[in-house]
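Input set for joint prediction.
Command: fold jointly, output tokens.
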Amino acid sequence: MRGSKDGVRFTRRQFVAAGAIGGAAIAVGCSAHNHGGWDFLSDDQALALAAMCDRIIPADDFPCASQAGVVTYIDHQLARTYRRHRNAYRDGLEQADAMSRKRFGHDLTELSSQQQVEIVGAIEQQNRKFFDLVREHTFEGYYGSPRHGGNRDAISWRMLGLAEPPVLGRAQYDLRRGPAS
Amino acid sequence: MKRVNAVVVGAGAAGGIVAKQLSTAGMSVVLLERGKWYTSNDCRKDDLRNQRITRLGNAFGPEDDGNPRVLVDVEGVPHIMLPSEGGYQNNAACVGSGTLSYGAMAWRYLPQDFRMRSTYGAPAGSSLEDWPISYDDLEPYYEKAEYEIGISGDDSDAPFRGPRRRPLPMPPLPPNREFQILEPAAKHLGLHPFPVPMARNSVPYNDRGPCMRCRWCVGFACEVDAKNGSQNTVIPKALATGNCELRTECMAREILTDDRGRARGVAYYDAAGRLQQQPSDIVVVSACAIESARLLLSSKSRLFPDGLGNRHDQVGRNLQGHHYTGAVGFFDFDTYDDVGPGASIAVSDYNHGTPGLCGGGMLANEFIRLPIQMVDQMPNGTPRWGLAHKQAMRCFFKRNIVVMGPTQQIPTADARVTLDPTVRDKWGMPVARISGNVHSHTFEIGLVQAQRAEAWLKEAGAMSTLINAGKPTTVSAGQHQAGTCRMGNDPQSSVVNRNCQLHDVDNVFVIDSSVHVTNGGFNPALTIMAIAYFASDALVHNWKGTGFRS
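tokens >
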């Protein structure tokens, strides 16, 4: 894998390891694990998705989407609430790689960040439905509650200047409890 | 099952009050609720799964599995909706219903809101009508709701309001930063701002403490139980009488009738999914506008082949909610102080009296926003993604104010709830099918309201603004749903009389927002509560032990 200019991307090995740790921490109590520690995605899908998410929320002096756990969040939900979006992700990510190969001769993850921006922009034009889905889920994973595996250490809230843990009230950040039912 | 005096279907804003009023008067009551009973311990502060942001489902029901509805769009194409999707037009399914997790604005409607047709005339194609009751009829019951539920605020200086005999029982919460920014701006514009009345303790009240002003308010159960709904006020009182039994996770299937055409009880599915029958002398339907209509329409029999109370094809019509419009203002200084509930200041100068417009609505600043709510509310020209979007979030998350309000909708008879011919819920019952839209004049009013919100923000110093005045292609009923069992004097054009009693069946009542003829330019909760007290009073007064005084 090529090094990246912005210096925020993981190598494949580091990324898979990070996913495995994140995935295991999230999935306490869940039995079935497949490849690489992801609940639903394959390693290649996870990398392609990370590339897409990281163009939607790139790093500045605060982390990019995947560093904040967005891929962990989306993967986690694809095995749960977002089961209905599995096909969209499977097909959409495959299409993203196909577009990358056609235009630049490599998979999405292997492109420079500028090339990735072009591809993600092309997906937005050509498959708006899939792009909007990824965009929405990326924002959820980055700006939403840390309990679902994204927004690691409430990093986006700190970025926006919100006190974490909150000044008022209990800190209800307990990964072992599932959503209220 | 032992026969009781009354079965109340739905333990929400209205049903809880009816149960309390009837059981306090000595009647035996069974209160059925399809959802669970949550408490402040169920406040999970989950930004993605609550009752307002439902990306990962509704925190307080209904759950996505087995509870579909059908929404018909402008082209007549039906879409199956999940409860967590906006088009579902959801209201919470739990004890307290919306009042467990609402923002808790507690408005009285204005006297003109009960006389919309007399005030403006009905626009062509609309079903705009007057209520058969007036503000004055309801005033004592507004007061009762304010004191029993517990409302904080101060409208003593507000010129645009109906007369009141007593002030609100609690003072408003101290002003937050948005209040301090918006108040002088409103006064410069010649408006009359005042604190939003809230069903929220600002001081200890009803044996519970005050609001601690956290960030997780609208959409969440209150962590310190300072938000006042039926679940922590009237329902515990009803149960304490010993005359009321609350059965949760019980889904009403139909109102049973005898061969003389009177109701004899309710058939429902209990928590284990078993079909049960609860015999009763009277039935009160308080399931909110969509589900109340659905229950009446589902209660078919030889005498009522089109559903109960539906002899003139009125049940389910005139569905309405509110058309929310407004603006976001972006500032070059911090407006965010992390102090809930956020919504704090309102004007009702624009509810009535604009030439050429049939009404208007209140404008207020929005509840405190969580970051996920701001991602699509960035200044015009901000890219939808990428570094520029992230930096806009960093720049403006703490530097924006949202002013918006519920434009009073002009109802139409075509906006309606029917039973879907094919889609069933998990109990095998036909689901609600929602079709039609409100009168298009509503959108003209909404646009003017948004421009007024924008002007207020600019006066307050906004550098730029973003107008939100969409034109929804379906009815926007949601938590403010109303109108489907219209109250009226004429049995041919309404479903219930002024006491919320079915014209067709004298021992069946519909007591909830279904009876609203029009829905005011305000959040409807306090009006729903006032009507529940009003109708319960009439019911208890006319009740003779086995039947009704004629």
